[in-house]
């Protein structure tokens, strides 16, 4: 782990050994590694994010339903430019601007489109977070963290939010459908052709699948753009916080696309 890089990346501390697990910090980790920018990680307890941001004078970028500001990570601090950026998408804009000689995260004229895609993916994956039944938070703080989340959701304990087997099964189906919709973007078919992702069902549906066009593992072929890191970051979160057999189920969908994609992101996943 480098300790004297100019750029500091603040990530949420996991259980030891420290690793990225939360989706938005994953977006930044993948982006920094892809650009090859030297950096050091500062691991922050989720309970200390507010005090850290307040100390550094970085405003909250999320608001809870009751209007309370919600302080989050990732955040980066660049000792060269003296800038501190505390939102994963703003970090991308900053990195492409401040490090113009490194590979671009955003292709020309795609910032707005990618921002909309980011918001959409956050919504799609957040809706299925109930399938993540493990947690990567440090056991030393996990009880306090769960109590904080329960308070946020207005329940006395997160156990009150546990899904029944039937609800869980429905959520799996909904998640498979949602990732099927996303597969249409990878296969460049537009928005109507369900046959491009249905790998199960009647024989008729299966034979319809021939003739599709596949772009490859990433949205636009072999080279990833930031939009791929958005999807990859969320997948990595599900991989970390799902029980292995549930993650394997996700990996079996859509011709195994998601497991292959996560494996392809390994080269930009190093914890520095
Ligand atoms: N819009 C922000 C959202 C960041 C965010 O929601 N981060 C989560 C982790 S993925 C967080 O720090 N949560 C702290 C908490 O919920 O207390 C960004 O893209 O950076």
From TrEMBL:
Give the species this sequence originates from: Zasmidium cellare ATCC 36951
What superkingdom does the record give? Answer: Eukaryota
This protein is called GST N-terminal domain-containing protein
Q: PROSITE patterns in the record, alphabetically?
A: GST_NTER
Annotated ranges, domain GST N-terminal: 12-103
Q: Which Pfam families match?
A: GST_C_7 (PF22041), GST_N_2 (PF13409)
